[in-house]
Specification:
DNA mismatch repair protein MutL; Heat Shock Protein 90; ATP hydrolysis activity; mismatched DNA binding; 4 domains; Ribosomal Protein S5, domain 2
């Protein structure tokens, strides 16, 4: 074994940089946190080429004492703590004294700083850890730090960086979090000479959310707060309208320090889902103020993790605060006057575009009506209540009847509802008329090419249908049970996935372009992956700062979908990274196929069942649906006779 020796300072700083300075984002985070600790009220962040070429942080904080400018870049030099006891009551964002020397060791760095007590500032130039010059220079109060050619002397780290757009997106994300944490500070983010956003710095969190996330988020957030003897919780959670397929828009701050914590995330999401069962993740910004003695921030060099002394009580406080906030918001928006005669207080759970609300009993029947009614426009009054007999009369075995327009109220005392104006609700706007199974299956038969495809299981003879849900069939002394919905869903899924893969998606020109305002992070993702959207059938143009204009959209299942499809693809890109079009659209294709497929309890004819089985035989993966459930179960004669004890 070789002899043990001390590493030189330059080597140790580079090793430390491997933990502290992972990428340009880490540099921005550390330097901006230093600006915040200096008491700055205005911070400007400028980057070029994703931070590789240039990172410049300008603040109006207290500045660095002239004698301390060069000392600041020595290992473990800090103004935040003096003794080991100070670590257990940290009130600043930085304290380790590792960031500046680590950054200086892997870049060309220049710092210009001045305090209010001096008439001049000090400009120091440090290249790859070595001090090159230090001169007096006139400047305003505060600090300017420039970092150029990051990782120029560490090619192993440089080659693992992502594209400049992706690195810029990650930087934009951390600046967004810091701007939320400190709404009293005005943050300006400039990327390649273009100003992406500037916050007001007026100490109003909602104004910061409006600037950073846009009007849609601003209009759909719910405030909450809670506390106990040791912790105070407050913040905002979004409703179902702004839920997304990823957790990118969730922010947790402990004593204004941005962290990631699964326990806190779970507490908020559980409270959210107790009211709104949505298969997406809620938007939230949560602030936790807690005694510094009850947490440990010295867990990881990046300071993104924190240990809590009592996690159980923290979970309860967060859950209760969010749960109460959502509950009160629902009551304030949907509560019916409690003075309704002969009835208990009721709440409406369905909101329509005209901001009118239906009686709760009507909501129970709406799914049945929406599924059965063909494209028509009806006038529904808020005091109309569909009772069970009315619903039963809607259905017939082979015929669909129109819903009566003037339904009599089931309770004559419900005259209080007359104050709500009648609304015209066009069901065709949101709901596709139900198609008979044979029609949709024939469409698939006509478009699918079964030539040169081998069957995955033998041809089956249909015996019948069980519970209008499962097809019973046989072949070669084997019994087959097929889930008709899962089978048809998989047939449609493979058809549309192949269409996307082979660029057979039909695009439709929109009469009026759809304008979508994106946050900086989403906009950068879109720019980086614009080719994927083009392949998917979109025609999108930039429309000002962080805003896009959608002019053509993919025509899926006879109905164009604009904003939701775009957002879902964007979320998939964030989760999966850049990939093939059919990969990033997997979830959307599965969802479309599920809605279009025949449902459980749909009565099918023998011809329809034969169509499904014949199609299922020739697709690539017929044995599971897109969600992983089995489509077909096989029972051999041996299995059945063993159940009947004919054999042992």
């Amino acid at each position: 074994m070789k002899r043990i020796q001390r590493l030189d300072l330059n080597t140790t700083n580079k090793i430390a940089a491997g933990e502290v300075v992972e990428r340009p984002y880490s540099v921005v985070k550390e330097l901006v946190e230093n600006s915040i600790d200096s008491g700055a009220t205005s911070i400007t962040i400028e980057i070029e080429e994703g931070g590789e070429k240039l990172i410049r942080i300008t603040d109006n904080g207290s500045g660095i004492h002239p004698e301390d400018v060069t000392i600041a870049f020595e290992a473990h030099a800090t103004s935040k703590i003096t003794t080991i006891e100070d670590i257990y009551k940290i009130s600043t964002l930085g304290f380790r004294g590792e960031a500046l020397p680590s950054i200086a060791s892997v870049s060309k760095l220049k710092v210009l700083s001045k305090t209010k007590d001096f008439d001049y500032g000090i400009e120091a130039v440090i290249e790859f850890g070595k001090l090159c010059s230090s001169v007096e220079k006139g400047c305003s109060n505060g600090t300017v730090i420039e970092v150029r050619d990051l990782f120029f002397n560490v090619p192993a780290r440089k080659k693992f960086l992502k594209s400049s757009q992706r690195e810029a997106s990650i930087i934009s994300d951390i600046i967004t979090r810091l701007a939320l944490s400190y709404p009293n500070i005005s943050f300006t983010f400039i990327n390649n000479g273009k100003t992406n956003f500037t916050t007001y710095g007026n100490d109003n969190l909602k104004d910061a959310i409006r600037v950073l996330y846009g009007k849609e988020v601003f209009n759909n957030i719910i405030e909450f707060e809670g506390c106990n003897d040791i912790v105070t919780i407050y913040g905002f959670v979004g409703n179902a309208e702004i839920s997304r397929g990823s957790r990118n828009r969730q922010s947790i701050f402990v004593n204004k320090r941005y962290i990631k914590n699964k326990l806190i995330t779970t507490a908020v999401e559980n409270a959210f889902k107790s009211f709104l069962t949505v298969n997406k993740f809620p938007f939230f910004v949560i602030f936790i103020d807690i005694y510094s003695e009850l947490i440990d921030v010295n867990v990881h060099p990046t300071k993104s993790e924190i240990k809590f002394q009592d996690e159980r009580s923290l979970f309860k406080v967060i859950f209760d605060a969010v749960h109460k906030g959502i509950s009160e918001d629902i009551k304030s928006k949907y509560a019916v006057e409690e003075s309704l005669p002969n009835s208990e207080p009721q709440y409406f759970t369905e909101k329509f575009e005209q901001n009118s609300y239906f009686n709760a009993s009507l909501n129970e029947s709406l799914p049945l009506v929406k599924e059965q009614i063909e494209n028509k426009s009806f006038t529904l009054k808020a005091d109309n209540i569909l009772n069970k007999s009315t619903i039963d009369n809607i259905h017939s075995e082979d015929k669909i009847y129109d819903v009566p327009i003037d339904l009599k109220p089931s309770n004559e005392n419900n005259k209080n509802f007359e104050s709500y104006s009648a609304i015209n609700y066009d069901l065709s706007n949101d709901f596709k008329p139900k198609e008979r199974a044979v029609e949709s299956i024939k469409d698939v038969m006509e478009t699918n090419e079964l030539v040169n495809q081998s069957p995955k299981f033998p041809s089956l003879r249909v015996i019948g249908q069980f519970n209008n849900t499962y097809i019973i069939a046989e072949a070669f002394k084997e019994l087959y049970l097929i889930d008709q919905h899962a089978a048809h869903e998989k047939i449609l899924f493979e058809k549309y996935r192949k269409d996307f893969k082979n660029s057979k998606v039909v695009s439709q020109i929109l009469l009026t372009p759809v304008i979508i305002e994106l946050i900086t992070d989403d906009y950068i993702y879109f720019i980086e992956n614009s080719d994927i959207f083009k392949e998917a059938g979109f025609k999108i143009e930039t429309f000002g700062s962080n805003t896009i204009s959608i002019r053509e959209v993919p025509y899926i299942l006879g109905k164009p979908d604009c904003k939701n499809l775009f957002i879902e693809i964007l979320d998939n890109l964030k989760s999966l990274g850049s990939g093939k079009t059919e990969d990033v659209k997997f979830n959307k294709i599965a969802s479309i196929s599920c809605k279009a497929a025949v449902k459980a309890h749909d009565k099918l004819s023998e011809i329809e069942m034969n169509h499904i089985l014949n199609e299922l035989r020739f697709i690539d993966e017929p044995f599971t649906c897109p969600h992983g459930r089995p489509t077909i179960l096989k029972f051999t004669l041996y299995d059945i006779e063993k159940k009947f004890k004919r054999i042992q």
